[in-house]
Amino acid sequence: MPSDRFSFSRLQLFDQCLAKYRFIYLDGRPAGGESIESYLGGRLHEALEWLYRERRTGRNILFDDLLKQYRSLWKEAWHGFVHIVQTGWQTDDYYQLGQRCLAGFYRRYAPFDEPVEGTERIISFTLDQDEGHLITAILDRLDQHGPGWWSIHDYKSGRKMLTPAQAGKDLQMKVYYLALVKTLENTERVDVVWHFLRHSQEVVLENVVWSPQRITTMLSKRIDKIKEREAQPQTLRPRESLLCNWCYYWDVCSAKAGKTHPARLAE
Ligand code: SF4
């Protein structure tokens, strides 16, 4: 039985490839590998989480401390199924890319005095009482600037940057925004901030005026559609795209039967 709990990643995957959605959310099948981009993103998120957690205890963090922590996170989490697709790129290139991301972040935000309320904050809520759809949002960081004034922060480790206009349409932040509005007493002002780590850039939308009702209706419709398709798993077919190169379900995907995955094992 598929879980009734929805996240942004689950909604997004449903739009990307129905077969992969089925492998993960209906069959509970583990992936045969992990892309190095995803591995890098995970370590950067952990390093930044550590940074603000330590900072909240009053500790001053030198750049060397942050690098040391990143190095240890990278080493400890390493497993034998990390893969590289990009020709000419080696494991160390990604490791160093992570260092550059942290250096840019450090330069921009040190001494990290932001009013951080929580990191990797998990918020679960019921979307609508009638349907009972459950949503889980994991916010990279939540700051509180004063009574009812919040900012939601999301760290992006990919190449792609959003313009403010594209950011304004971003479903992920709308889910997070709804999570705050639904679960906190006072959300008079909410700012949303995307941190594009590779570019040392941020995109900020201040005091967003998104309609919780419209977001709820839109999510509710999407989840209804997903549940309808989940009831007919045979219709959840592969949708090939460039993203297949970063997918580790080729062994069970009918579209990839007999084909060789372009990624190589990272060393
Ligand atoms: S390989 Fe491509 S088509 Fe097959 S499950 Fe993965 S993303 Fe979908």
Structure description:
With about 270 residues, the protein is an alpha/beta fold. It has a domain at about 115-220: Lambda Exonuclease, Chain A (Alpha-Beta Complex). The chain is built from eight helices and nine strands. It has helices at about 10-15, 20-25, 35-55, 65-75, 90-110, 165, 170-185, 210-230, and strands spanning about 5, 35, 80-85, 115-125, 135-145, 150-155, 190-195, 200-205, 265. The strands form two sheets. Strands 1, 4, 5, 6, 7 and 8 form a six-stranded mixed sheet that branches. A three-stranded mixed sheet has the order 2-3-9. It starts with a strand and ends with a strand. It binds iron/sulfur cluster. Iron/sulfur cluster (SF4) binds near residues 19, 238, 240, 243 and 253. Iron/sulfur cluster binds near residues 17, 20 and 249.
Task: Put the structure in a nutshell.
The protein has eight helices and nine strands. It has helices at 8-16, 18-26, 36-56, 63-77, 91-109, 164-167, 171-183, 212-230; strands at 5-6, 34-35, 82-84, 116-126, 134-146, 149-156, 189-196, 201-205, 264-265.
- How far do the termini sit from each other? 37 Å
Helical content stands at 40-55%
CATH class of the domain at 116-220: Alpha Beta
Query: Which regions are unreliable across 5 or more consecutive residues at pLDDT < 50?
Result: none
Structural class: alpha/beta
User: What is the overall pLDDT average?
Assistant: 96
Number of strands: 9
What radius of gyration results from the CA coordinates? 20 Å
Strand content: 15-25%
Query: Which second-level CATH architecture of the domain at 116-220 applies?
Result: Alpha-Beta Complex
SSE succession:
EHHEHHEHEEEHHEEHE
Question: What's the shape?
Answer: flat
Oligomer: single chain
Largest sheet: 6 strands, mixed
Can you tell me the CATH topology of the domain at 116-220? Lambda Exonuclease, Chain A
Number of helices: 8
**Distinct ligand kinds:** iron/sulfur cluster
